[in-house]
């Protein structure tokens, strides 16, 4: 009885775009490495961190995750899922720590050893003068911010620049940095990524796990139902034409806003516009995210996580939600105020105006995703108020 009252639960911050055998391996290994009975996933909704729509909707991916070993799946709000690696990681850590019952954090990496992640995160959190000086020097020499930061860290720590170029390692550093920034009491662990690399776009038979990029390409080529950023070209183009202040959106600097406006007369589609706007300083990922931030009105508002939407769960894990509510009531530091939303019609009216504004962005994003999918495939999908968490 005591074990059920205070179970060990490990959290995973994810996109599952789409879910594949490597993700199932991560879930299994997270359980084994931490001794946790339950795996809690905080997953991007219908739009993902690389800047675009998920290949299939969040409910389909939730069911895949539950079938693949997850016990609870929550939606990472749009404000975090369509953000840079740092904000994406921060949102995931805020989400997991707010639940009140998650004890550990586990992430996949190209390293497989937690020590360098903790060392780099401590250095970034402390921001020593020698690091700041090297970073500014590298930026003046024309390096992009990620490259300048990687070089500065490699000169101060026994860590190679290559380590900091690997996409999963980059996210791992941001997870550990977010733990320090928030003071979250989650024990971090990392699992060595096996199989194809993040950027591999063609599946090979000699790899134990495919890459998500390779699976997405197979879906594009096979004609299986899927979404792409170009499906939203009309909506994105309209949002650029009607925006009153492009520089008011989250990742759109005055310089990037000027570039958008200068190239906007030749807008011929999402992918084409991203390619035209891309420079050494403005990466394709940042431009994609910025365009969707404009579409959904995401500004650089103060960081908060007033709610989490439950997307799915296994019946035997439902008691965790009650344990989490009890843990919040016992919390004395006043920092935990995240509401769990499972039925929008009943739960949304309880939110304060600021939280409701954030939720409306999430609903808008999912409603637009649903409308474009329905028109593309002539298939009706329930709206967000008609959806309930998936229970298996």
Q: What do these coordinates show?
A:
This protein is of the alpha/beta class and 392 residues long. 49% of the residues lie in helices and 12% in strands. The protein has 17 helices and ten strands. Strands 1, 2, 5, 6, 7, 8, 9 and 10 form an eight-stranded mixed β-sheet that branches. Helix 7 (129-140) packs across helix 8 (145-156). The two termini are 23 Å apart.
Structure, briefly:
The chain is an alpha/beta fold and 392 residues long.
Task: Itemize the secondary structure elements and their pairings.
Elements: H1 2-5, E1 9-14, H2 21-34, E2 38-44, E3 47-48, E4 52-53, H3 58-67, E5 72-76, H4 78-81, H5 85-98, E6 104-109, H6 115-126, H7 129-140, H8 145-156, H9 167-182, E7 187-192, H10 212-222, H11 233-242, H12 254-263, H13 270-277, H14 284-296, E8 307-313, H15 319-330, E9 339-341, H16 344-347, H17 353-377, E10 390-391
Parallel strand pairs: 1-2, 1-6, 2-5, 6-7, 8-9, 8-10
Antiparallel strand pairs: 3-4, 5-8
Helix pairs in contact: 5-9, 6-9, 7-8, 11-14
């Amino acid at each position: 009885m005591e074990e059920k009252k205070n179970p060990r639960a490990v959290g995973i911050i994810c996109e599952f775009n789409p879910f594949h055998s490597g993700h199932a391996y991560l879930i299994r290994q997270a359980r084994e490495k931490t001794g946790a009975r339950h795996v809690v996933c905080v997953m991007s909704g219908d739009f993902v961190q690389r800047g675009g729509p998920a290949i299939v909707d969040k409910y389909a991916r939730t069911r895949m995750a539950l079938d693949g070993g997850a016990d609870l799946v929550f939606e990472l709000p749009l404000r975090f899922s369509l953000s840079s690696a740092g904000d994406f990681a921060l949102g995931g850590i805020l989400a997991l720590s707010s639940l009140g019952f998650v004890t550990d954090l586990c992430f996949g990496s190209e390293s497989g050893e937690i020590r360098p992640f903790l060392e780099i995160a401590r250095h970034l959190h402390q921001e020593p003068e020698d690091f700041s000086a090297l970073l500014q020097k590298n930026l003046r020499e024309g390096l992009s911010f990620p490259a300048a930061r990687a070089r500065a860290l490699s000169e101060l720590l026994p860590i190679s620049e290559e380590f900091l170029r690997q996409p999963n390692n980059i996210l791992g550093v941001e997870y550990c940095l977010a733990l320090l920034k928030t003071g979250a009491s989650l024990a971090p662990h990392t699992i060595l990524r096996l199989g194809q690399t993040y950027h591999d776009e063609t599946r090979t038979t000699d790899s134990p796990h495919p890459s998500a990029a390779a699976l997405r390409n197979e879906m594009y080529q096979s004609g299986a139902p899927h979404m792409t950023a170009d499906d939203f070209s009309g909506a994105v183009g309209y949002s650029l034409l009607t925006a009153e202040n492009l520089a008011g959106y989250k990742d759109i600097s005055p310089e990037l806003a000027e570039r958008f406006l200068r190239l906007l007369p030749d807008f011929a589609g999402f992918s084409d516009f991203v390619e035209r706007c891309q420079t050494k300083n403005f990466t394709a990922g940042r431009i994609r995210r910025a365009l969707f931030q404009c579409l959904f009105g995401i500004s650089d508002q103060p960081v908060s996580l007033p709610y989490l939407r439950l997307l799915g769960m296994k019946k035997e894990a439902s008691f965790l939600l009650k344990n989490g509510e009890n843990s919040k009531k016992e919390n004395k530091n006043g920092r935990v105020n995240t509401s769990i939303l499972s039925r929008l019609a009943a739960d949304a009216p309880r939110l304060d105006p600021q939280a409701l504004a954030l939720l409306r962005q999430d609903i808008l994003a999912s409603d637009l995703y649903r409308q474009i999918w329905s028109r593309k495939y002539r298939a009706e999908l329930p709206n967000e108020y008609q959806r309930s968490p998936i229970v298996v």
